[in-house]
Amino acid sequence: MTETEFFETLKNRALGDSAVIACLRRSAAYDPGLFPAVYPYVEPFVYNMNEWRRSATYLVAAYWALAQRMGRNDDDCNLQEALTLPKALKFLQAKNESSKTIEARFKALLDADTDELPWRLRHLTSQLAAAGIAIDWPDLLKDISRWPDPQRRVQVRWAREYWSASEASKKGESKHNRKKKPAEDSSLA
User: Which CATH number fits domain 3-175: 3.30.300.20, 1.10.520.40, 2.60.40.1180, 1.10.357.10?
Assistant: First the structure.
């Protein structure tokens, strides 16, 4: 089962039983994978994974449920509207131009080890959900599953995605805001 199929399965189960969201939401208060009531929803997907990937799956499923609770219902948007976490955070920062806390929290997330990750990720996903910005949950699960990579590939890619979009938008803004220079008269040469 792929990450996309996992979230589709969760969403379909939640449509038939409101306890799915409530249970997954409650699991966010526990260390990932230590709330037995969510096992029926997550274990079929993680039964042959290593310990970190299992934890990552429980963690992201809990935050997905919290986002559902905060009004970000994935049925309200299609997959094209869902953004990767760095793009979503950049979009949130653009909406709140005076806010430097988003960038500071993102930097702290990039520097987080696996012990700090759940806490830092929860704050950011909650902010996005409260702002109504859709996260690409399958993509987030893939990335968090790869978080402990010694080469920090996910963190590097996220940093590039976040700040390159920032630089591109600044360049775009400066091009539009620049005053045009008067054309030089070539007849004066």
Answer: 1.10.520.40
